[in-house]
């Protein structure tokens, strides 16, 4: 079931994956398993040697998952992207500009670039879309797409059922990606709401740290449910201010990804929060992660600045910023957040945006 596309007429075509971390490797395994010749570009020589070697696995970032014969790893970006129909970019957000500034000249006009990265830059407070719009050649601007949704790397690599969303300004571009990488075990929905899909994927990592801290402190299930629900509302407020469709936040890139990351044991961000809640030091936690990145840590700082810049009240994410980056006592932060002025559950700004939403669904037609 995992080796074929839903659309049997889709021909095998070269796919390139930029980034040899766990998520990049999982996507490369998925594409190669479908029958697409797939090239995985990684900076780390040990990752390339491990994937191409006798073990046929990324022993550094995704140990225990064999790479199909059609998957080849390389340190040469030009080899990876040459003649690829689709290039999946899976690079930590803070390094997207620097990396793509070098790789962008290697891309051709007909290629589709799909960002699978989630986060907000610290220096410019930009989403990945805004970064790519600056760095990519104008001819490729209409060929940019963004993939997000509840998708642990290990489960995708194992072929477990997964559903995600891919968004693009041009709906036909989103549909091309959708057809090319969908299988009965990896269902891709299309969308035109780039802002919603990106912000949902970026900001949920901060809330996963919050839920981890809550669980680490033993605050229980009620607290976790409140954090997820009210955290989603904060994401929605920020997304609406950036022009997103609020309904996207109830879909895979919003609620779906948020629930997974806030409750799943495979979540790096939740794990960071758990360890913080149990009293560990952030620097020690990050040093013990073996090079893996918990995007919620830098994103907490970025969303603190972004919310302030936009004038949007986000008490939960502000509280996590204070705990993670200022060393605030999480128990005191909880008391402060819970003791604020009593308010309606949904503000007028979100209600108005919901009622103004176009009948054209940002998450695709049907189910």
Structure description:
This protein is globular. The chain contains 16 helices and 10 strands. With 367 residues, it is α/β, with parallel strands linked by helices. The model is unreliable at 358-366 (pLDDT under 50). The strands form 2 sheets. It has an 8-stranded mixed β-sheet with strand order 5-2-1-6-7-8-9-10, sandwiched between helices. It has a two-stranded antiparallel sheet with strand order 3-4.
Quick overview:
The chain is of the alpha/beta class and 367 residues long.
Largest sheet properties: 8 strands, mixed
Structural class: alpha/beta
Q: Fraction of residues in helices? A: 40-55%
Q: If strands are numbered along the chain, what order do they take across the biggest sheet? A: 5-2-1-6-7-8-9-10
Task: Report the strand count.
Answer: 10
Low-confidence stretches: 358-366
Shape: globular
Total of helices: 16
Radius of gyration: 20 Å
Portion in strands: 5-15%
Order of helices and strands: EHEHEEEHEHEHEHEHEHHHHHHHHH
